[in-house]
Structure formats: structure tokens, C-alpha cells
Protein 1
Amino acid sequence: MSKEQKYIVIGGSAGSFQTITRILDALPNNYPHTLFLALHRLKYVRRGFVEALSLKSSLHVSEPADKDTILPGTIYLAPANYHMLIEPGNFFALSTEESINHSRPSIDLTFRTAAFAFKEQLIGIILSGANRDGADGLYAVKKQGGTAIVQKPDECQVRTMPAAALETSKTNIVLSDLEIIEFLKNI
Amino acid sequence: LTEICLSITDFRRILQHLFVETGYDFREYAVSTLKFRIERVMKSYNFEAGEELLSFMSGNKTFQESFVSDLQISGTELFRDPEMWSALRKHVLSKLPTKKPIQVFVPSCVSGEELYTLIIWLNEAELLDNVELTVSILTPKNELVIRQANFNIRKSDQTKKNIELLDTDKTFDDFFNVKQDYFTPKLRLPAQTRFIVSPFVKTDYLNVFDLILFRNKLLNYNDKLHREAMHVLHDSLVKGGHLMLGIGENTGELFKRRFKEVVKGERIFKKNSF
């Protein structure tokens, strides 16, 4: 593994849960990088999701509170009914800004603010989903010098989100879920 | 979303310029949300660079007023976090002493979603007639919006869902009248409501309030303003008074020992007496 700290932001919606759990399951407990999960979820169900993801991971999974410091080797899940933004200076800002693409948390907002904060240290990944949230965010990741990855639309349960991300970002890194896992294990 | 990406330098220049021209001070707000809002305004005016916004703003009172409105984040839905509201009624409202008027403070109110939720809930707890309400707002325009209380009909489904999850037999129709494209609370503001036009952190109440509703407002602030706001909140409360923050918010390290969380995770805090 390289010594440079990386930040990985993953966006997903309908059909992405299985891939997310596979990724979390595959990462070792000494994984040095930080993951941000911007996943569409029910607004009024505050509990249970982070616990379900924790069962699949040897890393610490948490929902950050506003102004929490971002730590290496940690997985952060965007809390229900908040946007999760990355504030310059390595900490979180939550927001009750209106829904974007009918979504709060918005994948685009997490990706955009992470891209601005981490530039080339950021890897953005868009998985399965049923709307175009994340497409503009992945474009921002690429524009700020980060690595933009899209899960192969044909293997996704719902291809709308990765197809939109592919079209908008024009990234040429299109990987299967197994290839995404290998990529993340080897950075 | 917009493709515009404002530099931090331009971001700070815009806020400084706004402060000098209007006196409205957003300079200590959290960067990421406010930056996004400014970028969205820039997109709506087809500005590509911060410089264009700066020159358009200079001396343009109409734009300045609408820009200040755009920078304020309004509430999301009514009865957001129903578990918190149920816990508030059970653990706080039912135990408030009713011998003297209950002093309630709602600082930095923008559009009234949280305020009317509290009013409805105080009424359900049969406390509303005994409440003296103070509302701080940033601009006089906020008072008009709050008094009108016309909430966008798009927020009604989520509000209905929230009410279903409350510890009550009442329904959305018990609390609201539906018009064509908006809904409005059946209850209006109590007669003893006082509006003060002031940035919240400039208020200087000392040991006045029994209850302060400040949910999801600290999110807008940077670390420094967060600490200042917590000082003001702490000082404004009577000993044993209660503070409601948003579920995603914290009091901060400095104030951990000065408050006790009444119900774990619901962010209802009681001011300690030491």
C-alpha cells in the first residue's frame, strides 16, 4: 500500500447495499484510509443502518455529528435526513439544506465538498442507484484532480445512477464490484 | 447542481463585502454549506466568477436583501425527529412548573417550522396559555414569513409521516389547514410573542429562559461562532432550564459538563446548576 492518506467517497442508492457490504467486509482492520458513505436512506429511520454496516466491517463505522474530526481508518455513514459535507480543515459539517435530487443526504453535496477539501487525495465511486444523484459530484471529483470510478452499469441492480455518473464525469475507470474491492485494497 | 467552484479567497471577500455594505455578518459561518449557497446564487444570475457577484452587489440594496435571504437556511419539515418531540413532552414539558409564565426562546428563526411545531406541542401539553415567547430573527422580513406560516405543500407528506410517528392520537388534519399549494397551522402565534431583530449571538439575556429551541442552527456556524453561541445559550437559560439542539449537533467539549443530556441521543439538554 502507498503511504499517502487517501479519502474514499462512495455514493449509492437502490441496489447498492450488497456491494457496500462486500467492500466493507473485504477491507482489513488496519486499513489506513478513510471512507465516506453517502447512501440514500429513509429520512425518518435514524437507527439500525450503521449497526447493520458495522456487522460487516472490522473497521469502526459511525455516523458523524456536526464538527466531528475526520479520522483515518474509519468509515463514516451520512446520517438520516442530513447532508454530510466535508469542511476544509478535516472535519464534518452537517446540513439541513433542502433535498437535492429528492435526496437528503445528497451524494452530490458530499462528493463536491470532499473534492474541494481533498483534491487528488480523493477517490469517488458511484454504485447502483435509481436517480442521477452523484453524477455532478463525481464530475467535481475528477475536475479537482481526484480519481473518479463508476461501477459497471450492466452489473448494477439499477443502472440509472452509474450511467448518469459515467455520462457526466466522462471517467474511463469503470469497474466491477470485485475490481473496486481489489482497487481499494491496493491503494 | 452548479459547476461553479468558488475559491476560499473569493468566498471570504464576498462575505466581507456583504458585511461592510449591510451589517449582516456571515463571516464566521461554516464554509461548505454557505459556499454551496453562494455558488447556487451565482448560477441563478449566470455569474462565473466571484468578482462578478461582488460588483453586482455593490450598492444594490435589492440584491443584497435577497442575497441575505438566500444565505439563511430555513427549516425542513414540521415535527422533524418525532422521537425527540415525544421525549420532550414526556420528560420536559410534563414537568415544567406552571406557577409563573414559562419563558421560551427561539433564536435565529427563519421560516417557522420548528417554532410552530413547538407551539403546537406546548398546546398539546396544555401549556401554551402560560408561555411567554421570544423569537430572535436576523431581518424584519423573517417576521412576515413566520407570521404568515404558509408552508410549502411539498413538505406536507413528510410532516404527516412525522406526526404518525409521534406519541399522539392526533393527525395532520388536527393541526393544519391545507390550502392549494401550501398548508398552515390552525394555531397562530401566542399574543405574548416578542420578536427581536438581532443576530442571536449579540443578545445578552442572563438567566431568563426555561426553554430554548435551537435545533440545527449550530450547524451553520464555524467552531468559533459555535462556542460563542453556546456561551449565549448557556447564559440565557435559567439553572435547570432546557436546551434543544438538532440530532446531529453537539454542545462542544467546553460545555459537556455544564449540561446534562435528558434523553440519550435526542439532544435535549438540561443546564446544570453548578
Note: The beta strands of chain A are 7-12, 34-39, 60-62, 74-77, 83-87, 91-95, 122-126, 147-151, 174-175.
Protein 2
Amino acid sequence: MTTILTVCRIELARIFSLKPAFAVLVVASLAYAVFYPQPYRTEALRDVPIAVVDLDGTDSSRELARRVDASADVAVGAVFPDQASATQDVFTRNLYGVLVIPPFFERDLLHHRQSPIALYVDASYFLIYQRLSGGVTSVARTMGAEVETARLVAAGVDPVLAAAAADPMPLTAVPLFNPQGGYATYILPAAFVLILQQTLLIGVGLLGTYRNDELSAEPAASAGPVSVVAGKLLAYLVLEIFIMSFYLIALPYLYNIPRLGAALSILIFALPFALAVSAMGLVLAHLFRDPLTVQLVSAALGIPFLFLAGFSWPTEAIPPFLHAVAILLPSTSAINGMVAVSQMGASIGDVRRPFLTLWALAVAYTAIAILLESRGRQRVVAS
Amino acid sequence: MMAKGRLRPGFILVFRREFDRLARRRLLLFLTTILPLLLMGLLAVVFSAGLATRLPIAVLDLDGTDLSRTIIRTVDATPDTAVASRVSDLAEGRKLILAGQVRGLLMLPRNLERDVYGGRRPEVVFFYNTQAMTSGNLVLRGINSAVPAVAAGIRLSLRTAEGQPLEAAQAALTPIPVQVNPLFNPTLNYAHFLLAALLPSVLQVIIVTTMAYAVGLDVETSHRLSVLRRLGGGLWPAMAGKILPYTLLFLVVLGVSDWVLFGVLDMPLRGNRYLLILAGVLLILADQFIGVLLALLLRPMASAISISTLLMAPAFGFMGIGFPRIGMNAFAYNWGKMIPGTWYLMARIDQTIRGTPLYLSWKPIAVLLFMVLLLAALTALRLEVIRARRQPRPIQPTTVEGAPQ
């Protein structure tokens, strides 16, 4: 037990004295906390500019354009006489769509005919496409329902029944957990988990590949492989208590991300995650042996890991065999479980599958780390 | 490579030395070629199934009539949603959502059919999980097309029952229909879109970090730098011979992956492919110079690699592929402007899915070219400063314009 604590003390001291490790584990963690969320701080895409080509030029067409401009999603950025000149501005990314109100728009409405309008949307960016088509369609639907109700009332139908005939079965969509549909609320809780994994993985990899003279000197030299691995894991756990609390509890609060989770459940769920990542880092350190390799290989892995987790790209769309392999990464279970616990207020029981998976990974990677540690020692003794 | 005999020092010598080194240093070769191609293959498999379809939702049917069953059938028939389970109360549905087994819960209230035909406008409620935005929006789209479709049928039958002719009744349903025409991306396949944008983003991180490493190997100590200079017969040819082998390698990697994307997976390539290649060359050069500059400015090499990782790894978010740049705050918008990948992806989207006419395509390419020239000038300046420091002869720098410190 004392040897475990000795190893732990040595490792903790190294975290702060070994410059590259400190840079990754502490400095990078703090820098990412400020830097990474910046693109998403505004939460939502609002007032996407489009062009209006009003070929009708009547009260009704102007009213439609005004309502489109007034909606939260869309803004009328320019008015053009024809569609060709508007399309040019879409190519240069000044505008993202063109709303064409055809001639006789008002006359057709007054004659109780369908009066279609056409929307050309830049579909090369999906959030923009979604905003614009949704925004304009809902304005047209509201205006259409008013027209329809007015017609029915004019025909002598009771106003209440007229409203029912226009919309007999209203659909109410209630977004859960991310009520504003905010982008930061969606991406950051998942990204934070990934940042935690990557910094810890690289940090542990660096600590394991740089020379460690103190560990081979007394009094730590007598420690067996089990004690060495346990001591190191304990040291990383002590560090991560602070860093993970900061990332998973303080940061969402500072960035005003709506959240339902209890701090205790978050920390309980974080425990096997921290252990699994640390142990995996020890294994990687044995495999890579060189600190620069650790850094260079890990640098490129962040983006693929996020998409493998089945969060920003739904699990249902990932081929099953790949998903099975992705389970070997702690981030895959941790992102989904942690988001459920911290954002959706799930209890540990609700997320027992990812929770138990993380424990299994922690045990497996620790066992491999112990094995590699003891083999490494035999080699040292033999040579 | 010293055994090569009496080769004249110069660009060629350094160029060949670099390829020799790649053959010997497995790590360098792995990082520059195999790793990006492996990651590319991995991402291609992740997105191979295309857009997610038939996402599971739960249904709470408190009505149990023909109408509610019709709604459930219609919802199950949309490409986006599949009715995976029936629940008996809201709590059960909540549990399923929390466990991630379903993406939403459709609640059909008691007496739905009776109230609909009685004109009492009962509400159908759909609870959906927006915490996972992609799947949340997909299930919402499915419900949004299914439920109004059933409602339209009811409206139609209400009117025809009152003696309206069918055509007039249909016209009255939606007085102002919107014809939404997607420009540029008619299949709306965002799996392809994401995949085509992700590879350059991953490659960008790799280019900057490996250049910091490869150049760092030769400039970490002043002794190694002077070796490099002697081999190259001057700092500039030496640096050119150092950089160019990697430019070629990364071009091959980008070429292979683009061949897979556009040749094998048949993604749309609707613009000018020479412009696409030109933009690719400029992206690689710009990113290489960032790595070189960091290696020249920061010692030891480990810090240069750390800083390049710190700068480039989060770049994807700033390039506006997921969340568009027009929605970002001022800092993020301007930071994104300084990343070569932002401009490259614009050029890439222009020349692949948008089919932008030639005369409107030059802006992102011009910006990339400017970046390459600026970064090359800064690198040259830095090399001159290093040389001035290494030669403590009392020649005052006459041509070097006030080197910034």
C-alpha cells in the first residue's frame, strides 16, 4: 500500500515538473475550455439573409415578404428584379436563398386558387438549408391558414369551426433537454468529454514515455507491476477529479448550457471513464515508447473519434461492426452516457450499459497495462 | 546519406536526403501517408450507410381507434422514422429516451378521433430528443411530414363531405404552397458532404504537426541547422528541398482520397477539377509553412508540436462545416478566416457540389495564394533572422527590413 502511495506521489510530482505533460494535462485543458466553444457560443443560426424577387408587387406579396423578414430564422437581405442576378449573390455566399413570388400571386389567392411561391435554397450547408426551408414554409403555412379561415368565415362558417377545418389536428413538437435547439448545448457536452479523453490520453502517454528515473530509484524500485500501475492510476485520478469537475460541472454552468444532471451522478459516471482512459494511456505508452509518436499520432485522432462515438452522427447509421470496434474507445460509451446523465438528468441506472462498459474497459486496459509493465521489467532484468 | 559520395550541395541533395529519411524513419512515413489514408478509410466506413433512416421512436396511443392506427402506420412508413415500441405511459417513454433506445415519443391523446371529427382540434404531441441534434431533427422531419399528411386527408374528407368538388377542396388545403428547390445539392446527401469536408480537415492537422516535426528534426539545434544549410548550399534552397518532398506526399494522399471520393464513391464533381487541384496545392503549402514557422519559432520541437496540435486540432469547428460561419461570434468568424482550411473548403465546395462558374470561383483561391505568399515571406524572414544571429560579423543588416521581435 505504501509503495502505491509512493508511486502516486512520484507521478503527481512529474505531472507538474515534466513540462510537456503539464502543458497537455493542465495548460491545454484550460486553453481548450476557452478556445473550443467559441464557434458555438451564439447557440443558434438566426436571420439567414435571402433575396426576394417579387414579380407580383401587390399588398399580399409585400406582406408575405415582410413576414418572412420578421421571422427569427430568415432575413430579407436584398430585393432583386429577377432571379439570375440574385443567384450570383448566392454563389458568392452573400445570400443563401432566393424567394420568388410569381406574378398574379394576389389575384390567385383572391380567386380561391392555389398560389404557389418558389424558394431556391443553398443546400450545400445543411443547417442553412434547414433554417431557410423551415422558416419560409412555416410563414407560408401560417399565412395560408389565415387565408383559408378567412375564406370559410366569409362563406358563413362559424369562426371556431373554420379554424378547426383549416387545422383539425394540430401537431405540437416538444423538444426535450435542449429546449432552444441550441448548437452549443448540443455539441459542447459531447466535445468536452472528447477533449477530456484526448488530453488525458496524450498526457498519460507522455508521462509513460519520458524517462522516469525516480521510479527506478529507492524507495519506489521495490514496487511490483501491480503497485506501479495502481499508483499511477491513482495519481491521474487525483488530477482528473479537479479537471473533470471543471469540465463537466463548472464549464456548462459558465457557458449557460441548460442541464438537468446531479453533480454526484456526473462524478460517479466520470470515475470509470477516467480510469479507462488513464489505463488505455498506459497501454499506448508501452506500445509507442516515444513521446513524439504519442503526440503526433494522437493529434489527428480527435475528429474521427467524435464521429465514431455515434453522437453527432447517429449510431443507427454507423455500420454495426465498426460500432462494435468503436466500443473499445472509452469516448464512445462516455459521450453517450455522460450526455444522458449531465444533460438529460438520467440516473446511473438509466445508463447502466455504457457505465458497465466503461468499467469493463477500465479493468481490461488496467490488466493489459500490468501485463506490459511486468514484461517490460523482465526484459530490463534479462538484458 | 553522407555515403553518396561527392554530391554537389544544393536543393536536389536535400530533396533526396529527405526521401532517404522517409524510407528510414517509419514513423514519418506512417504519419504522412498511412495514417491519413487509414483515417480517411475509417470515416468513409462511418458514413458509408448514408443518412440515417428509420430512426426508432415510441408511440403512446391513448385512443386506439382507426385514426390513431392510421397515424402510427403513416409515421412508420416515412423513411425517417420507425415505430420501435409501444409504451403505456409517459414515464416509460422517458426511460426509453434516456436509455437512447428511442429518439422520440409520439403521444396520441384519448378521444382523438372523436374530437377531430367534432371540430375540437385535439393536439397530437411529439416529444423528441434535441440533445442529439442530428437524430432529433430527422425524427422531427418524419413526424412533420406524416402527421400533417393524415390531417390533410381529414381536411379533404371534411370538405368533400360538405359537397365541395375534390379539386377545389385540394386547392383550398394549402393556399400558399412552397416549392423548395435545393440549389447545388439536389440529393441532399450530407453524409457525402461531411465526408468530403472531413478528410482535408484531418489532413490539415497532420500536415501542420508533421511539418513541425520534420523541420524540427533539422532545426532543433543550431548545429543541425548549419548541417542542413551546408547540404543545401544556403538556407533557402535547403528549406525548399526540405519542404517539397512532403508537398508531393501530401498531394498524393489528397489525390488518392479524392479519387476514392469522386471516382469510386461517385460523389458529385461539378466544378473545375484543375481549380480543385490548385486549391489543394495551395492548402498543403499554406499548412506546411505554418508547421515550418512553428518549428523555426519554438524550441524544443516537442513544444512546436504541442502548439501546432493546440492550434489545428479544434480548427474543424471554426471552418463552418457543422455550424455555419455566418452564425458565429466575431472572434470565431475572424479566427476561421485565418485558417487555410476554411478557404480551401470553400473552394472545394464551390468546385464539387456547387459548380460555381469560373469567374465567381477565384476569391477563396486568391486568399489561399495570399496566405501561402505571406507565410513563405514570414518563413524567409525568420530564416534571415536566424542567419543574422549565426553570423556575428559586424555587417549591419542593410536589406533586412526591421525584423520583428
Note: The mean pLDDT of chain A is 88.
